[in-house]
Amino acid sequence: MARTAGSDGGRTEAAIRDAAVQLIARHGYEAVTMRQLAAEVGVQAAALYRYFPNKEDLLHSLMREHMEELATTWENARPANDDPVARLTSFVANHIRFHVERRHATHVSNMELRSLSRDNLTSILKLRTAYEKELRTILRDGADAGLLEVDDTGLTAMAIIQMITGVIVWFRPDERLSVDEVTATYLAMTMRLTGAKTNAEDRHVRQDAELRAR
Amino acid sequence: MARTAGSDGGRTEAAIRDAAVQLIARHGYEAVTMRQLAAEVGVQAAALYRYFPNKEDLLHSLMREHMEELATTWENARPANDDPVARLTSFVANHIRFHVERRHATHVSNMELRSLSRDNLTSILKLRTAYEKELRTILRDGADAGLLEVDDTGLTAMAIIQMITGVIVWFRPDERLSVDEVTATYLAMTMRLTGAKTNAEDRHVRQDAELRAR
DNA sequence: GAATTAATTAAACGTTCGTTTTATTAATTT
DNA sequence: AAATTAATAAAACGAACGTTTAATTAATTC
């Protein structure tokens, strides 16, 4: 046999990407074989090489797609106003939603970096660094404006990212909590962690100052 | 050739464990071959099978050792007094120190769980869950005593653990910050995140209350 | 110092891996 | 309807994998 009836390159490639993300997330890149992936797609292994030159390029392509989607999603979610606390809120909420909705792809992008060769690794890390810089900028702006208490911008950014990305480790939809509830709790923790002056607290701080001024 | 001069079972096993942790942390369990590991130790691949029945049992043994050391270290570091804030401080400081000192073993224990078969996985998760429960207990005790502000004990425990374990992702000794400096910053973030009433803040809160009472 | 045990090498086993080559059929274009 | 291009199957490649078996030497015990 050869070309099958109804076969379509676009659909096949999408099916390969989909199956690859699932399989690699579950078993790890090295453990997944091209034959296993092909079987999942319902095709012979050789057919995969029409879409990706080799196994590593497939992995790299999945990661690149994930990171570029993340950047795009954040660009669209970023609020127009430049209040640092509002931007921090948007960042955390967007980050959690994006990653929860892409648990498998996130696992792949975070855990399989070591399987990339130099150049492929560099290109992914570049995208990741650019994204992380967004958070550092928010934190610095907030600290400069006196709206956040941040000892060390870099450390705090890493701490927050680890914390909110970690949601995917334990979160399962259809269980006790919804994404919105989890996001609310994590937002509250982020705000306390950064000593954010919310409107309410702000009023409180001002009240205290007024009391003392008397 | 056969037995080599000066060979010693104890030393060889230790060398295997050491090399395995380094190699698996860097390349991943599936990517490391028994021949590669043997070469690193300076021995033939067959010699490894005198110490571990197979590749997976080697991995499981490394993880078990790591988790048991973690439990032991915490037992020794746990403060005698039962002030929740003091216990939280000890937990975070001990956790960061332990993991920073064992970056590679931590990577193995956290990232290679999917390579374990059912029974081996269960035994490791049991140890991990027991350890995490320590933190949940501290948080609940603190919340019950009114010393911590914790919305959700489970979520907060996971958030803190992700945050402080994440140190190993970016921390490198001999760079800008020492372990103690990093620990101090993370402790400050943890205390804010949990709304901990330290002595200083406690006094501050009492002062505010007094001011208002006038 | 002979017998035994511990530690290791060397070689081989069958299996599976990523990838390539070649042939074949479906769909599209002319 | 013939020619061309796209999508796949089938088979084969050498290399590498985890593991086993058998032989060999060092260290220890008797």
Describe this structure in words.
Chains A, B: This is TetR family transcriptional regulator. Chains A, B: One of its GO terms (molecular function) is DNA-binding transcription factor activity. Chains A, B: It comes from Aminobacter anthyllidis. Chains A, B: Residues 10-70 form the HTH tetR-type domain. Chains A, B: Residues 33-52 bind DNA. The structure is a homodimer of 214-residue chains. With 214 residues, chain A is an all-alpha fold. Chain A has 2 domains: 8-52, Orthogonal Bundle (Arc Repressor Mutant, subunit A); 54-213, Tetracycline Repressor, domain 2, CATH 1.10.357. The first copy, chain A, has 11 helices and no strands. Chain A has helices at 9-27, 34-41, 45-48, 55-77, 84-101, 103-111, 118-144, 153-165, 167-170, 179-193, 199-213. The radius of gyration of chain A is 22 Å and the shape is elongated. The first copy, chain A, starts with 8 loop residues before the first helix and ends with a helix. The mean pLDDT of chain A is 91. The first copy, chain A, binds a DNA duplex (30 and 30 nucleotides) through helix 3.
In short, what is this structure?
Chain A is mainly α and 214 residues long. Chain A has helices at residues 9-27, 34-41, 45-48, 55-77, 84-101, 103-111, 118-144, 153-165, 167-170, 179-193, 199-213. Chain A folds into two domains: 8-52, Homeodomain-like (Arc Repressor Mutant, subunit A, Orthogonal Bundle), CATH 1.10.10.60; 54-213, Tetracycline Repressor, domain 2, CATH 1.10.357.10.
SSE diagram, text form:
Two copies of one chain form a homodimer.
Chain A lengths: L8 H19 L6 H8 L3 H4 L6 H23 L6 H18 L1 H9 L6 H27 L8 H13 L1 H4 L8 H15 L5 H15 L1
Helix pairs in contact in A: 1-2, 1-6, 4-5, 4-6, 4-7, 5-7, 5-10, 7-8
The first copy, chain A, binds a DNA duplex (30 and 30 nucleotides) through α3.
